[in-house]
Amino acid sequence: LAVDLTTKTDAELVALQKHGSEWQARMARLVLAGRKPSSGEADAFVGLLADPNPVVRLRAMWGLAMRGEG
Length: 70
Hints:
The chain is mostly helical.
């Protein structure tokens, strides 16, 4: 099944950090890294820092670090 993450919005890509597939989450971060940062993107990653799942929190930290926010 081919998934084109480049068609997803920034909010959808950030939401993929909660996906059960590490590949989906990693590829979403890579797509975001290639885009100009949006105003709500950092806030969305910060919101994930409160997630009860430590994997999601770690992904959020990676997303913030990738943007120079962490």
